[in-house]
Amino acid sequence: MRNRTAIDAIADDYTRKLAALRPLAATGMGIPGHDHLVGDYSPAGHQAVADLTRATLTALDAAAPADETDAVTLAAMRDRLGLDLEFFDAGEHLADLNVIASPLQDFRDTLDLMPTDTAEDLETLAARVSRIPEAMAGYIESLRAGAASGPVPAVRQVAACAKQAQTLADPAGFFGTLAADAAAPDDLRRALDAAGAAAAAAYGRLARFLTDELAGSAVAEDAVGRERYERASRLFVSATVDLDETYAWGLDELAAINAEMGEVVARIAGPGAGVADAVALLEADPARRLHGTDALQRWMQQTSDEAVRALDGVHFDIAPPARVLECRIAPSATGGIYYTGPNDDFSRPGRMWWSVPAGVTEFSTWNEKTTVYHEGVPGHHLQISAAVANRDELNLWRRLACWTSGHGEGWALYAERLMDEFGFLADDGDRLGMLDAQRLRATRVVLDLGVHLGKPAPAEYGGGIWDAEKAWALLCANSTMDRAFLSFELDRYLGWPGQAPSYKIGQRLWEEIRRDARRLAESRGEVFSLKDFHTRALNLGSVPLGVLREQLVR
Questions:
Q1: Considering the domain boundaries, does residue 534 fall inside one?
Q2: 3-state class of 38 per DSSP?
Q3: Mean pLDDT per 10-residue run, the chain (554 residues)?
């Protein structure tokens, strides 16, 4: 076991203090003691986080690495915390409003991670929900400050988020019915009812603020421009990339995936058939259909368990606690599929969630098997649980707090292709599902960079400069997904610049690092072991991709 160092102590101290300032993040990380709190989202609350970040960077500057693990921690923390400060200094925290990942959603979505089995659990839940109004007031204060000083969210995000807030304000909605199914004494049910009613009212105030006040200050343009986009790209990709070259690569990658899909479509539906023809055949196949959410949950669990058994000891060595992945139907109904990691002792296991929209009872397996691999093993679950299990080497920040989208989502996309490489997507239907998912991620690169950087659009999508209308045409032409889902996705990309492309760009960088590591090994006369490469990579945790390259290619 590695000895704990001064840099480990700084990283652990930062993580625990951050958990106290951001209790919702603490719940996500599985750090106990804060689940009854929400946190301060006012300008003063953001300042407190920034002060902690600056103090931590100062402490790191005075510390010398004791070993290679320390050197990685130092490089990763300087990168991540330094970017956090760049965002703070640019005022981005005062414009934190989008349809998928802002405090509006965090206040609600974090509640799904909280246990509700005992009276004590429900008391903790009621305490947290009762504090949402205060946190919401601070959040509104920050958005108001941003409207006065900039930057300001786009009007598209304000309008869409106002609708989300109004839904959560409905007395018959989530908060209004919080106590409906709770097996609790009457006094606790009354506490849940009161907390839920107060939280719903707070969302009503947010909806009115967005509609009546912030909308008047919101900018009409969806594009954020090059300066803000470059900063966002460095945050999400966790590496500096040539954005113009990446846009051109995105166009080429999209064309290549479409050509690959064409070959699979021909095998499914015959020469000259289109994607829609192949999809119709797959959707009509009873063997590829699931009826009801219970069947969906069982299929998710079975597919995940089979992957763990097949991969463990062959392509990966999976730590015993990480061999457990719970597949669940989420209590929300947004239509998304996502993963939440284990806590530090694995008493809360990693979980894959499927948020099924209301009224949807029929599901297809051909287009979702690759999603199970993306969210589970060898995707997010293997990646995140490997870091959590590596307690002998990694400090608390490396195990639980450090997450970069380019590394994490890039790995998960890389994992989808890896399962094809390993032969798990030999069925043409499953392979078409994987390619369709990869195609959407390539489309994101073109769309996101195209709109936010004002790049020229190809003639087939209208020419001129990219805008929301042309982006919609691009999405519809390059995905088999439901139009309602794609509409939400368009809003997501336009309101969360730099995040969506990090999946495909991250995959590209993972593949480049693997290629370069192989070349380096072969140049030394060594045999390149893919299993060893993956083990070394995953044991580092979710470090920035530039740090990953330094560790694996040298």
A1: no
A2: coil
A3: 95 98 97 97 98 98 97 98 98 97 96 92 96 98 95 97 97 88 83 96 98 97 97 97 98 98 98 96 97 96 98 96 95 83 94 90 95 97 96 96 96 97 97 97 98 97 96 96 91 97 98 98 96 97 96 92
pTM: 0.95
Phi, psi of 456 (to 5 degrees): -75, 135
Tell me: do 107 and 218 sit in the same domain. Answer: yes
Distance in angstroms between the alpha carbons of the first and the last residue of the chain: 25
- CA triple 264-268-273, angle to 5 deg: 85
Q: Give yes or no: residues 281 and 206 share one domain.
A: no
* pLDDT given at position 530: 97
Do 293 and 212 share a structural domain?
no
| Among 124, 179, 115, 132, residue whose Cα is nearest residue 38 | 132
Do residues 93 and 21 make contact, with C-beta atoms less than 8 angstroms apart?
no
* One domain, residues 260 and 201: no
Residues 188 and 67 in one domain: yes
For residues 204 and 247, membership in a common domain is answered with no
Task: Quote the number of domains for the chain.
Answer: 2
Range of the domain at 386: 235-501
Residue 522: inside a domain: no
- Under a CB-based contact definition with an 8 Å cutoff, are residues 236 and 408 in contact? no
> Per the domain annotation, does 304 fall within a domain?
yes
Report the distance separating Cα 451 and Cα 492, nearest Å: 13
Q: Say if 546 falls within a structural domain.
A: no
Instruction: Report the distance separating Cα 432 and Cα 369, nearest Å.
Output: 10
Domain boundary among 223, 254, 272: 223
Enter the tokens of residue 37.
């709190």
CB under 8 A, 24+ apart: contacts of 533-541: 534/315, 534/316, 535/316, 535/317, 537/513, 538/316, 538/382, 538/383, 538/386, 538/387, 539/386, 539/387, 539/390, 539/393, 540/72, 540/387, 540/398, 541/387, 541/390, 541/394, 541/398, 541/399, 541/402
